[in-house]
Amino acid sequence: MLLNKIQYTPPLQATSYPFNLPWQAHFRELKLTQSVTILTGDNGSGKSTLLNAIAANYNAILMSGASLEDGPEYDNSRALARQLKLTWTYRTKSGFLFRADDFISFIRATRGRIKYAQAQLEHLAPKSLERLPYLNTLAEVHHLYKVDLDTLSHGQAFLALFRARLHANALYLLDEPESPLTPENQLSLLALIHEAVTSGAQFIISTHSPILMAYPDAQLLALGNTLAPIQYDQIEHITFLRSFLDDPQRFVYHLLHD
User: Fold this and answer.
1) Is the Cβ–Cβ distance between 181 and 189 less than 8 Å?
2) How many Å apart are CA 115 and CA 109, to the nearest integer?
3) CATH superfamily, domain at 3-108+170-257
4) Which residue numbers delimit the AAA+ ATPase domain (predicted)?
């Protein structure tokens, strides 16, 4: 375990977001007991808010390498982060904060670098020294990801990225990483997470995915009126999905005819 405790001190007289989430009224301390912690809850419950605030507290980098200190979109996260105290067994700067929107932007930027380098090489003489920076760009991307990202779907590129970027003794904060993945590829991601955990990595994951929630011995936490441990079979999303899959036509019929 790298990060083992999160403490929260509410600010005085703060009643607006990000300090008006219901679970904050009773939340003061959270002990992380497993290498994988799963945050569950409805949309708007504050899963991403908490995850971003943890990241902002210790200035985690984004998957792209950018800092959370940049950009006004993290102002609320930084405000909540100032009210958190993190306790570490071993403090690491390895790892990153992942958000689905950032992933799409990162893949587009990486593909843009590849296409730009390829375009420049087409206009330079084969033995020109000016080719070196562009060749280095292509070699760097290929060495890191071992595949041609320019030819992969978002889901395939996502898995290639995680295969290349998950390392030992690193803390990864993942916000709905299932977004670009089919259920089968979510299982592949689960296997990659497990491989990293066995080498000392730690994950805190905000997700709606029943597959990711099923990680063995994960610490499952539900955010709602409280922030509290929950069993897999008690998660509202799981029970609803089971009911739907048992008789999908019944749900659809009532939805369209009521």
Assistant:
1) yes
2) 10
3) P-loop containing nucleotide triphosphate hydrolases (3.40.50.300)
4) 33-227
